[in-house]
Amino acid sequence: MTDSFGARGQLAVGGTSYDYYRLGAVASQAQLDRLPYSLKVLLENLVRHEDGVNITKDDINALINWDPKAEPSTEIAFTPARVILQDFTGVPCVVDLAAMRDAVAKLGGDATKINPLVPVELVIDHSVMVDKSGSNDALDLNAKIEFDRNKERYAFLRWGQTAFDNFKVVPPDTGIVHQVNIEYLARVVFGKETGVAYPDTVVGTDSHTTMVNGIGVLGWGVGGIEAEAAMLGQPVTMLIPQVVGYRLTGKLSEGVTATDLVLTIVERLRELGVVGKFVEFFGEGLADLPLADRATIANMAPEYGATCGIFPVDEATINYLKLTGRDEDELALVETYAKANGMWRHDDDPDAEYSHVLELDLSTVQPSLAGPKRPQDRILLSDMKSSYQSHLKPMVAERSEKSQAEARLESEGGPVVKSGVAQLAIDGESFELSDGAVVIAAITSCTNTSNPVVLLGAGLVAQKAAARGLKVKPWVKTSLAPGSQVVTDYLNKAGLMDDLEALGFHVVGYGCTTCIGNSGPLKAAISQAIQDNDLVATSVLSGNRNFEGRVHSDVRMNFLASPPLVVAYALAGTVDIDLVNEPLGQDQDGNDVYLKDIWPSNAEIQETLAASLNSDMFKTRYADVYAGDARWQGLEIPTGKIYEWDNTSTYVQNPPYFEGMSLDTDDIGEIKGARCLAKLGDSITTDHISPAGVIKPDQDAGEYLMSKGVQQADFNSLGSRRGNHEVMMRGTFANVRLRNQIAPGTEGGWTRHLPDGEQMSIYEAAMKYKAENTPLVVLGGKEYGTGSSRDWAAKGTILLGVKAVICESFERIHRSNLVGMGVLPLQFADGDSHESLGLTGLETYDIEGLQRGAKSVSVTATTDDGKVTTFQAKVRIDTPKEWDYYEHGGILQYVIRQLAAA
């Protein structure tokens, strides 16, 4: 390393001496005081990795002299200390590494050079599904089904553990990746492993990697493609970001939860617009904000659109590390380092400079939910009933129109309008299922299940409800998916697990479950009633994602809420209720019971917390975290450094990215005669592009699996099949709620093949275009690619033959992923859209003027009758390193050529 500033020095911690890089040697105290905490972490990263090539003295000076108001323009190379994966996105990462070893060997290089160069940890948490719920055997049964379904994938991951250095796997049924990260994996400050003290930084293949920002670790979600590059020593290129400061003051009021707080923050930051920016929380309100609340806020950075939402290291960080079982040497290193390098928060610190400052008095936060299909659409609990009813009206109108149209086709009599009500009898109990019915009530996801205050709050609500004789409605599927096994320990110690189970909230698994679409099946009669009567069924979940079609295909509205409110809505059985003023039900004596009657006080929750949670729980649960159970240990795995691909596997296949690859790159070239595969609207999420949920037998992916002899019961989910490109290509743009304007009147993965106009699935059309050597484009609106950092949304796009995506704006991670897979991201000029330009998607498209460094290109759309529309589009390849990747056809090809050439 160059160390132009002479920053390397010695740091004594107890009886141990560490090397470290002193920020005081590269900038004055005044310069450091004005820098936000997150930029100090980036500055140290640059100073430590300065090599005169990828990182220069000028880069460091640019960060020291950061202009908070300027538009980002200076590229830097950020080198994360480690990479974290979950299994849905981790399996394809390991598949790609295995495929890269094959490719390097074929090009004459040393295949073993394909190896993680930084610590990589994968937590298996995305595969468990709620097949069984509401019973004492739900956890064991779901775990068994999960293992049986995913044995091939898990054996492959265990092979990866033996074949690759610096790669560890946390086995299934341990916890959610982000909670395991903050409770065990996060170092906060590295040193013990390296002899050099430096801040822990991380990139992860899940959007909510940002949760670790709550303990002062700078990290964010990236696509699997970027993560693989980071594993292989490639820095993450980025522009020095703007940093939005969020000043917090005051304290939360009685009865208000961290979930209410984060939904308020999400709404306000979305209104401001923070895509591509860092958000940093500061102010006197931090003094009374527990670390679990900070983690909740940091977790939902993807929902407010920021790259990260970070809190500085302070006393709360140390207390949390101590609670979660870190040893005294670690605690001393974190505190000593943070104070020595100006990264410790003091109450009297001068305010840093920020690009923009928002303020929130915590005492003004009110109980809230968000929905019915976006996490930023906050609803006051007091307004919930009226909000639901306003969203219901257009759905009822649409149902009425559809029913009348069906009646005209099927009957000579008058129209039969579906009423939104169904009569059912299940297990001898008769009831009425109507619009607004809560059919899923799930305490789930890393957002809230890391927070003992809201989980104990949910347990106390259940306890008080059970004492009054209240019961969950029979149509509600209830579930509890804790973020770690420690949650079960403190709920049991508090005596609240029995009360939760009395209402059907049995533990169903230690994983993401409902929040990622692994909600499992509804009872057959309920599902059939919803479909037959076109009912507007709802879910209430304590997660972070409620996009259309994500939670369950039978559920039209999804609402995010705190765990105690999830319990309350399970008791009510409907969202068509004012929980502030209307009773939840009646007690044994026929008296009305209101939410306020069973809601615990803050003091009651804190008293329960103090008596039920301790450090020994964490030390015990994480003592042997990588060992796994007998099933995990008994897996048969292949040996050797080159993976032995099984051509009959429906889970793991060698992807075709490197077929025909040589050491030379092709010219970028122009895109001529392209057809539009899909013309889409605003807020198209990565769930729309590459859904993770169920595979249906009448979809292309289901038909493929059946052709390979897989029974429908063994389909598993699209998320679990990400190691097989054949399945994932067929699942691309196959979300049941996708509306492709090229195929009006359809919902799902449909398009029209052009120029003949024949309607078919998007996959079928893409393969037909491929046979005709016709390149493809996709047209979109605003916020294209929001949601999860799903690399398959980019991988599927390129494998379908899409060369360019043209839209009004991109979500940060997805745009980067497209470049990383060799897809050209283009953005309409300001004020333009496919609507304003009159584009129908039926034209042919020529894209001209594309060359390295180009800021814009000319796009010509020509209709079959000769009408020509020409417009300019911005090229969203934002950095020189991204141009390197695009010219090579993607990040992986770039790395392979570098290694093979070396």
Automatic annotation (TrEMBL):
Residues 66-573 form the Aconitase/3-isopropylmalate dehydratase large subunit alpha/beta/alpha domain. GO terms for molecular function: 4 iron, 4 sulfur cluster binding; aconitate hydratase activity; metal ion binding; RNA binding. It is an enzyme of class 4 (lyase). It catalyses: citrate = D-threo-isocitrate. Its EC number is 4.2.1.3. InterPro entries: AcnA_IRP_Swivel, Acnase/IPM_dHydase_lsu_aba_1/3, Acoase/IPM_deHydtase_lsu_aba, Aconitase/3IPM_dehydase_swvl, Aconitase/IRP2, Aconitase_4Fe-4S_BS, Aconitase_4Fe-4S_dom, AconitaseA/IPMdHydase_ssu_swvl. Residues 703-830 form the Aconitase A/isopropylmalate dehydratase small subunit swivel domain. Pathway: Carbohydrate metabolism; tricarboxylic acid cycle; isocitrate from oxaloacetate: step 2/2. PROSITE patterns: ACONITASE_1, ACONITASE_2. It holds the Pfam family Aconitase_C. Its cofactor is [4Fe-4S] cluster. Belongs to the aconitase/IPM isomerase family. PANTHER family: ACONITASE/IRON-RESPONSIVE ELEMENT FAMILY MEMBER. This is Aconitate hydratase. It comes from Oceanococcus atlanticus.
